């Protein structure tokens, strides 16, 4: 027991609940030091219990976080797979579109080649084949606008090469065509050219220069921008035809009533209008300088403008 004159706090208890014995060192100071050490050892002994009580909580928290991490990883993989699937689908669509386009181009080329082969067949026995080739080219021009300029050139060349060449009889200076109407296949080609969609021409207009188009049916035909220089249109019906900005230099017109023909901005320089009937024609901006005309030429009620050149009436 400590001395009576040395007050001491009551001893504490150990981890097992038993009272801690106080070692008497002979002085109050030593007693106090011993008690303090005993209390420190008590606190140190109690710490492992606290730590052990916290460890299960940390382990449970870590275990609780693991399922969430796996769920996030699974969601990320699912998003990646969905994106890859979408990209694969887009690639498949693009590849399919390119394949279809290539197939269509191949079909257009095949149709074009077959139509040309049909036009190349000559003679009366192959008339139906030539007509089929002409209509096949017309259909191709509607299905493939990019082929329209080439079709214009093919049909123009067909007309120029099929019609008989103009005859020149001395002392005439203007060539004349045989006195017979155009052939059936030539008329069909003219009809197809006259009803084409000229918006797809891309500056490639029909070239019928020097062609014999005697007594051709060109009613309402759209030959705007066409080259008809030195062509013979004697006896042709041009009622309501569109020859706007057409090149009609040295062309020949006669013996036919063709009212309301559009010749706006057309080049008629040196054209032979002897006996032509262009009543009510539209001649605004047309060039009529050096044209040939006689008493049978009729241009009653024609519409002109300040830009009309070579007006004689």
- SS-derived structural category: mainly alpha
Overall average pLDDT:
81
Query: Uncertain segments of ≥5 residues (pLDDT<50)?
Result: 20-26, 50-54
Globular, elongated, flat, extended or rod-shaped: what is the shape? elongated
| Largest β sheet strand count, sense and barrel closure | 2 strands, parallel
Radius of gyration: 53 Å
Strand content: under 5%
> How many distinct helices?
4
Oligomer: single chain
Number of strands: 2
Tell me the number of structural domains.
Answer: 2
| First-last Cα distance | 156 Å
- Summarize the helix and strand pattern as letters: HHHHEE
Region (Disordered): 293-313
Biased composition (Basic and acidic residues): 303-313
Transmembrane segments: 72-98
Keywords: Membrane, Transmembrane, Transmembrane helix
Question: Summarize this, please?
Answer:
The chain has 313 residues and is mainly α.
In words, what does this structure look like?
It is a single chain. With 313 residues, the chain is an all-alpha fold. The chain has two domains: 1-61, no CATH class; 107-277, no CATH class. The chain is built from four helices and two strands, in the order H-H-H-H-E-E. The radius of gyration is 53 Å and the shape is elongated. Residues 20-26 and 50-54 have low confidence and may be disordered.
Features:
mainly alpha; 2 strands; 313 residues; 2 domains
Give the helix/strand layout.
Layout: H1 28-119, H2 127-143, H3 148-162, H4 184-194, E1 256-257, E2 276-277
Parallel strand pairs: 1-2
Helix pairs in contact: 1-2, 2-4, 3-4
